[in-house]
Amino acid sequence: MLKPLQTTQVSWLEVATMALEALWSNRLRTALTMLGVIIGIASVIMVTSVGQGVQRATEQQIQALGTNVLLVLQGAARSGGISQGAGSASTLTWEDAEAIAQQAPAAEDVTAFLQRLGQVVSGDRNTSTSILGTDLNYPAVKELKLKEGQFFSDTDLNNASAVVVLGSRVRDDLFAPGETAVGANVRIQNGRYTVLGVMESKGSVGGMDQDDRVYIPLTTMSARIVGNNSLSGTAISGFWLKAADQNQLEAAQFQVTNLLRIRHNIYPPDPDDFRISNQVDVINTFSGVVSLFTVLVGAIAGISLVVGGIGIANIMLVSVVERTREIGIRKAIGATNQAILSQFLTEAIVVSLVGGAIGVAIGIGLALAAALLFKFPFVISLWAIAAGLTLAFTVGLIAGVIPARNAARLDPIAALRTD
């Protein structure tokens, strides 16, 4: 039943009531009109949440390596002016790492390592894993803890003893549940090694499983598995440097760079034969990339909001044509142009806001499902929800302006003549 509008001033409550009645009487059309907005808002919320969750998970993984550490690796060998690729130069030595520990004031601790892939065998079980030759400082710098047994000793390091400490995954691969690993013998490249201990699980960082590795003395690694291929000293793959705190990393990097250049007789413009990786820089770089990717994908998802806005505009234009006679009757009984304009504009905004609210709920649900499925932190930012609802309101406002204006400008006499 049409309500007479006999005053020039109409309350917003009355306008909203009429708008809701009109939308409810055409529920299917209203639902289809909302669909574009729902999909757009849900996509933006989900993409933003997943992006932030992945970013936080990766930051946590990188921070697990320590935000106060530097990683120094072998550089690239050059032949005929052509680089042979990162890690191809065998220029870093254990003596370099020891010199850095003694001469770099910002270095709280330094640990060298030599790494290769190899087979580890126990009885009828075997696994391909990472074999890490280290010194005694490695567990402290990398914050590793023993689950059982002990780490190798200074005597083992000096004597190049055939002893090994297993990562938790390697232990599970080589020994049955309940079977004692400590004291057992395993074979590494046809050599027999005694298991001294098993490390606590550390998890994966950057796609690398820190539990899928074994640790042997650096001297043993150099003498028995790799062979000393450095012109002087014990060749290493690299070393980790631990500073007192994150604020000391820049000073540590400067000191390491200059000390290694002096030790390796490198003078500008000659390139360095080593690489330094700063964990804080890695976090910042990755965070920037993920943030940019999230914004890009969110913008693509936002295109569906534009499509939803076009859908709202089209439906509202059709609604004006279908309701021409109704508009004529309202005007004939006293409705002002402002009242008609407000009603149709309110209908468009209500459709967008309700669709936006539903989209937010669906987006949060999808984001939570993705976080549980792929095991990364569930992150929902209030600004994303606020931005989504604001965007929905804006879409409804813009999409409803032209249809509402057309409805308000209808000639009531011509409208009443419409069948």
Strand order of the largest sheet: 4-5-12-7-9-8
Low-confidence stretches: 1-8, 82-88
Our measurement of the CA-to-CA distance between the termini, rounded to an integer number of angstroms, reads: 18 Å
Note the main sheet.
Answer: 6 strands, mixed, barrel
Helical residues, percent: 40-55%
Number of helices: 13
Strand content: 15-25%
Q: Could you spell the SSE succession in H and E letters?
A: HHEEEHEEHEHEHEEEEEHEHEHHHHH
How many strand units?
Answer: 14
Structure summarized in a few sentences:
With 419 residues, the chain is an alpha+beta fold.
3D architecture notes:
- Helix content is 54%, strand content 20%.
- It is α+β, with helices and mostly antiparallel strands and 419 residues long.
- It folds into 2 domains: 183 residues, no CATH class; 183 residues, no CATH class.
- Strands 4-5-12-7-9-8 form a 6-stranded mixed barrel.
- A hairpin with a 2-residue loop joins strand 4 and strand 5.
- Helix 1 packs across helix 11 and helix 2 packs antiparallel against helix 9.
- It is elongated, with a radius of gyration of 34 Å.
- The two termini are 18 Å apart.
- The relative contact order is 0.19.
- The N terminus is likely disordered.
